[in-house]
Amino acid sequence: CPMETSTEVRAFSPPSPSVQNIKKISPGDNGKQERFRLTISDGTHKQGSAMLATQMNSLLVNEEVVKYGSIRLKKFMCNVVQGRTIIIILNAEVVDRDLGGVIGESTKTD
Q: Could you report the per-residue pLDDT of 71-109, keeping only the tens digit for each?
């Protein structure tokens, strides 16, 4: 993940990125639950491939997580698929519902 590139283990505060975009991913014809892809940024780095775990969908359906809001990533993992890093958000909480727009000048990392 762009937030942690070192192999050494160390304690850190959970990241609290802003949500720059939310896109609903079609479940297709196989009846799977809908998925959501988020574009998140820490103000310096922008990650366009962050997927919300389906058990967290209620945060979006209930409009707790919104565009230009901020979330704290309490539990997440990174996967590399076809050369792209994807952050899977397993647990998060809302920090702020309205930051008023994009924060910082982030560069794309994926």
A: 999 999 988 889 888 999 999 999 888 877 776 666 666
Structure tokens at 68: 């230009």
How far is CA 108 from its chain centroid? 14
* Closest by Cα among 76, 72, 93 to 85: 76
In Å, how far are 24, 25, 33, 35 from 28, measured between CA atoms?
12, 9, 9, 11
Quote the pTM value.
0.76
Residue-by-residue DSSP string for 17-77: -EEEEEEEEP-TTTTPPPEEEEEEE-SSEEEEEEEE-GGGHHHHHTTSS-TT-EEEEEEEE
Burial tier of 38 (Cβ tally within 10 Å: 0-12, 13-18, 19+): buried
Q: How many CB atoms lie within 10 A of CB 35?
A: 15
